[in-house]
Design a protein that fits this description.
It is a single chain. By secondary structure, the protein is α/β, with parallel strands linked by helices. It has two domains: 2-287, no CATH class; 314-494, Alpha-Beta Barrel (fumarase). The chain has 15 helices and 19 strands.
């Protein structure tokens, strides 16, 4: 009978979470590098180069790939012959491992978990609790598979119960079109088919823990209907032309993973969950001999791809900028921002709009006249850092706040990731503002452009507090110009047409 010590289990969870915070899985890096070499879209290639360069920087500096360091999800298979040397529950041991990982002084990770989920939504401060799935199996070992799942991709989870005669392929293609770019493609799609509603969702999540092997599958050919389905979906999803960061291009997904389970004769439950460009997962086995020993990848595993600012990019001084200047910017144009901008996410926007509704003044230091706001919740700094990894959060969550922000505060520009919805685009056009996109999955690279940071309001919100950043050559792309043209509409439409061999022209919103 194998004895698993509490200290070994907790340390293994903590070490694994630190490990995946700064090391991409080798298969992901190789797949993304292959996609980069084949990509024909300049915007998508630039985004992929930023992600790959960021990945190497994080591996070298042992800092998070993304500022959203994820919700911890753990799948455990515990042998029935295992004996635990502990007085704690499995959940308590996992949570202690999470706590140690996320508060490690050498590599602080961002705490994102809030409790309760409605109402006060207070940050738990250490990213606990984890979401734990447990299965008892024959044997005398403990198999651990864990992931740190970012909110942007998690928010795009989809579920439906189809009729048995319905086309699953049609449902996937229709649904992917509605997901936008908030899940930070290129990534993976995990699909669960069958079981009950909750089983299908669990299968989809677990499918994302699989290794990327679609090109090997393509080379040898499918051996069963599920492999045929994977190949069909891989080709057809990429043919949608969504591309890296939703900018339009040849690669939207690097793999499609599918798990199945028997289901009721009257039902076809199907779930789909994407994984983002900051895909983080690992697996290991404990046999009672001590904590897991994780072997770091070799830096040679990363391709010799680096990112440098485009020589043709327009340099912008944010200090003293006005509407006349931003009106000259073109959709898809690359900019390098320097100067001061404020930060703010969902909670800060809610507080600001509540103040506006009550006719109360904004806090001292929050003057948005002719200024830009960056949608970001950074990781806390360590050592000599100004700020930890500070990539963009999904801009569509701020769409509901866009009109009052633009009409009542003097704000002229916003920076985030992914597309804006019709309501926000209409407001941007109406007020002659702009929306700029930074690359999701390049958080450490972006942080290097931040030269100073100070909290100016709502300090109690933690990572969601309003900060003032001073930046130098921060790379962004004009995603929605002052006339309301969105590259997240024109880019995918153009590349879908190119892939299909049909020229496409999309009119601005």
């Amino acid at each position: 009978m194998t004895q698993i010590r509490e200290s070994d289990f907790i340390q293994s969870i903590a070490d694994a979470l630190q490990f995946i915070s700064y090391y991409h899985p080798r298969d992901y890096i190789q797949a993304l590098a292959t996609a980069y070499q084949a990509e024909e879209s300049p915007a998508a290639r630039d985004a992929m180069a930023q992600i790959l360069h960021n990945s190497r920087l994080c591996a070298e500096g042992h800092r998070p790939i993304c500022q959203d360091t994820g919700m911890v999800v753990v799948f455990l298979k515990i042998g029935m012959e295992v004996r635990w040397e502990t007085s704690l529950s499995i959940q308590a041991m996992v949570d202690e491992g999470v706590r140690r990982a996320y508060t490690h002084p050498d590599n602080l990770l961002r705490a994102s978990m809030v409790s309760p989920p409605i109402g006060a939504r207070r940050n738990t401060g250490d990213n606990t609790p984890a979401v734990v799935h447990l299965e008892l199996v024959p044997g005398d070992k403990v198999e651990v598979r864990l992931a740190a799942k970012g909110g942007g991709s998690e928010n795009k989870s989809k579920f439906a119960v189809l009729n048995p005669s319905d086309s699953l392929v049609d449902w996937v293609l229709k649904t992917v079109r509605t997901m936008g770019a908030g899940w930070c493609p290129p990534g993976m799609l995990g699909i669960g088919i069958g079981g009950s509603s909750e089983k299908a969702m669990l299968l989809a999540k677990e499918a994302l823990l699989g290794h990327i092997d679609i090109h090997a599958l393509k080379a040898r050919g499918p051996s069963d209907p599920i492999e045929e389905l994977r190949l069909e979906l891989f080709e057809k999803v990429n043919a949608l032309g969504i591309g890296a960061q939703g900018l339009g291009g040849l690669t939207t997904v690097l793999d499609v993973k599918i798990l199945t389970y028997p289901t009721h004769a009257a039902s076809l439950p199907v779930a789909m969950i994407p994984n983002c460009a900051a895909t983080r997962h690992i697996e290991f086995t404990l046999d009672g001999s001590g904590p897991v020993v994780l072997e770091p990848p070799r830096l040679e595993d990363w391709p010799a791809i680096t990112w440098e600012p485009d020589a043709q990019a327009r340099r912008v001084n944010l200090d003293g900028i006005g509407r006349a200047e931003i009106a000259t910017w073109k959709p898809g144009e690359r900019l390098l921002l320097s100067g001061k901008l404020l930060t703010g996410r969902d909670a800060a926007h809610k507080r600001i709009t509540d103040l506006l509704e009550r006719g109360e003044p904004l806090p001292d230091g929050v003057d948005l006249t002719d200024r830009f706001i960056y949608y970001v919740g950074p990781v806390d700094p360590v050592r000599d850092e100004i700020v930890g990894p500070a990539g963009p959060t999904t801009a569509t969550r701020m769409d509901k706040f866009t009109e009052p922000m633009l009409s009542q505060t003097g704000l002229i520009g916003m920076v985030g990731k992914a597309e804006r919805g019709p309501e926000a685009i209409a407001s941007i056009k109406r007020h002659g503002a702009v929306y700029l996109m930074a690359v999701g999955g390049a958080a450490y690279l972006v942080a290097r452009a931040i030269k100073s940071s100070r909290i100016v309001a709502f300090e109690d919100l933690g990572m969601e507090a309003i900060r003032e950043f001073e930046v130098e050559d921060m790379p962004v792309t004009v995603a929605v110009d002052s006339r309301g043209e969105s590259v997240h509409q024109t880019g995918p439409a153009e590349w879908q047409g190119r892939i299909a061999g049909i020229p496409v022209r999309v009119e601005p919103a």
